Amino acid sequence: MNCLEFRRLKLTEPYCVSKEAALHASNCPGCSRFQQETNELDDSLRTALTVEVPEGLAAKVILNQSLKHNPRRPTRRYWLSLAASFLIAITLIPFLPTQTLDAEIITHLDHEAHQVHGKSGDIDNGEVANVLLAAGGEINDSLGTVTYASKCMMDDQLIAHFVVKNGNETYTLMLIPEEIDNIIPFQSERWHGLIVPHAAGSLAVIASRQTGSSVDFLQLAERYSTAIKRSSI
Known about the structure:
- The longest helix is centred in the first third of the chain and has 21 residues, at 29-49.
- The protein has 2 domains: 1-73, no CATH class; 101-230, no CATH class.
- The protein has a 7-stranded antiparallel sheet, sandwiched between helices. Strands 2-9 form a two-stranded antiparallel ribbon.
- Helix 1 (3-12) packs parallel to helix 3.
- It is built from 8 helices and 9 strands.
- The radius of gyration is 41 Å and the shape is elongated.
- Helix content is 44%, strand content 24%.
- Strand 7 and strand 8 (201-208) form a beta hairpin.
- The chain is an alpha+beta fold.
- The chain has helices at residues 3-12, 19-27, 29-49, 57-69, 76-92, 101-111, 125-134, 217-227, and strands at 119-120, 137-139, 145-154, 157-166, 169-176, 184-187, 191-198, 201-208, 228-230.
C-alpha cells in the first residue's frame, strides 16, 4: 500500500483498520501523522454532534427571525426618551461656543459671500444710504469714493458692507447692529483691522494685509464713524 491509497482509505473509511494500512502507517511517519490528525478531527466532530440542544432553542430561533422581518413599533417610552433628548439639546444651544465678532468678520470676508448680492462700480449716495438703512445707519457725511456696496447676512444679522477708496488705498467698512463696549483690533493671514463701538451698533474698518502694517485704523474709524450716524427711522 502506498501513501495515496492509505490516505484515500483513511478519508473514506476512517475506522477501517486493515493489516496493510496498519503496516504502512507504522513504517511511514507522514501517513502516521495524517492518521492521528484525522482521528482527532473526527473525535471533535463527534463531540460537537453530541452536545445537548437547549430546550426551546428552535422556538427562540423562529421568534428571532419573525422579529427581524416585523420590527416592533416604537413604544411610548421610546418617544418620551426622544423628546427628552431633543429638549436637552435645545436647552444647551445658548451655552454652545460661538464665534467672536472679529472671527465672524474674517470668515465673512474669506468666503466673500457678499459679492453675490452687492453692487460694484461707482456707487452713488442713494445706494449707500439704502444699504446703510438696512443695518440701522444713515449718511451723515460722505464716505468718499465707494466702489462696492452690499447688504449682507452675517451670523443671522443684516450688515452694511462697503469697499471705499482713501487716497491710493482701499478699505472695507462694515456697519454691524451688534453692540460692543470696547475697541477690538484683529488680524488674520489675509486681513487686519479694527472694530469700534458705534451709535448703530459697531463699525469695522478692514484692510488687506498687503496694505501693510502702518495703517492708522483708529483715525480711519473716527472718520467713518462721523460719516455714518444712527438711523432716525
